[in-house]
Design brief:
This protein is mainly α. 71% of the residues lie in helices and 3% in strands.
Length: 146
């Protein structure tokens, strides 16, 4: 008599129905946190209120656009990856480091950003990092199912 053994699969997939509310929640939380970071940076760390790339409309717009791209990436990874949660975390880490290029190039003068200084640079780095943490945390915990 032959016996067969089966291994439980630990593959977690995304739940599209959950993304209907987790996606907007992620975007709203990230926008609000970025606005708080911006306000703190302007009030306490000498970041000029008039810096173009840290104006509230620009912060809101860029956060929404890039998080919509993150949601599309999450859907694609969930659809095609063997282990979507792990792969998405790695992909997000790579995307975070790529997103650092914009502030780095602006600080180095390779990207036109009049008025860029070290305080603005660190504010942008903190905003990018916190947004990535929020996005990965909410998407990979609230929008997945075993």
């Amino acid at each position: 008599m032959a016996s067969t053994t089966t291994r439980p699969t630990s593959r977690k997939g995304f739940a599209l129905r959950k993304l209907v509310w987790v996606g907007p929640l992620t975007i709203i939380v990230a926008v609000l946190v970025n606005l708080v970071i911006r306000t703190i940076a302007v009030a306490f760390f000498g970041v000029p209120d008039g810096f173009t790339y840290l104006q509230a409309p620009f912060v809101i717009g860029s956060t929404v656009v890039f998080l919509l791209l993150a949601l599309v990436a999450f859907i694609l990874v969930g659809r095609f990856a063997r282990r979507p949660v792990g792969f998405y975390r790695i992909l997000t880490l790579v995307a975070l480091f790529v997103s650092f290029l914009n502030p780095i190039m602006a600080l180095a003068g390779l990207y036109p950003a009049p008025g860029m200084n070290l305080n603005i640079f660190w504010t942008m780095i903190v905003m990018h990092t916190v947004t990535a943490i929020i996005t990965v945390s909410l998407l990979t915990t609230l929008a997945v199912e075993p």
